[in-house]
Amino acid sequence: MNLEMVKEVLYDIASMFFGQAVVIWAEQVNTKPVPPYVSLKVGNLNRTRFPLISEDGSRYYPCSTAMEINLYTKGKPISRQENATGNFMNTAVSDLNDFFQFVESEEITDLLAGKGMDVLLILPVRDLTGLENDSRYRYRAMAEATVSFPQEADGRYGIGGMPDAPNDSGGGSAEMAETEGSVIERIEIEEVTEGGLISHEK
User: What CA–CA distance (Å, rounded) separates 89 from 8?
Assistant: First the structure.
């Protein structure tokens, strides 16, 4: 799994929950949708300096990144005696908090775990509501989360887990990705005892 694959999973989960809203990536050339809509942003990639080796011999780097999610909404219409007043209640923070309860549910936790991922909310969920113009508010809430995932580093060149080789920037090759690493199948251990030198083979 790499960062682009992680972004696809995050987008799918946000779209799954906010089924009646538009989900977009922040800082891209997009026409601003009509609320409600959600913008996602992923930060820098952090990884451990050295890879870990699993029981089956595969290598991977524990990685993490920060996700920022913003919810823009009109809120809840306020009505009196079945007649709408034209005013709306700010539900942005509550609605975004509902999303993280969804992320932390048994179903989505299992889905993420199946991919080796974990999404942890960094409190608080912030209210960033502000005036769009002199008379109208745009309700907005923002939250951040830490996203953890493993990036495979198998093969002699460490790119055995790369989904596409070469990658979109021309890095790596299919030959590199398919070249397996060295495997030690047998070792000989010499042990010195009172009776002499004993050799063990494993």
Answer: 32
CA distances from 83 to 75, 76, 88, 91 (A): 17, 14, 13, 20
pLDDT tens digit string along 21-39? 999 999 876 677 889 999 9
Q: Give φ, ψ of 16 to 5 degrees.
A: -65, -45
| End-to-end Cα spacing for the chain | 33
- The CA distances from residue 197 to 57, 121, 190, 191, in Å, are 31, 59, 7, 6
* pTM of the predicted protein model: 0.78
Cβ(201)–Cβ(186) below 8 Å: yes
Say if CB 128 and CB 140 are below 8 A apart. Answer: yes
Burial of 120 (0-12, 13-18, 19+ CB in 10 A): middle
Spatial neighbors of 130 by CB under 8 A, at least 6 apart, are 137, 138, 140
> For the segment 71-99, what is each residue's pLDDT rounded down to a tens digit?
999 888 777 666 555 678 889 999 999 99
Residue from 172, 122, 174 nearest 148 by CA: 122
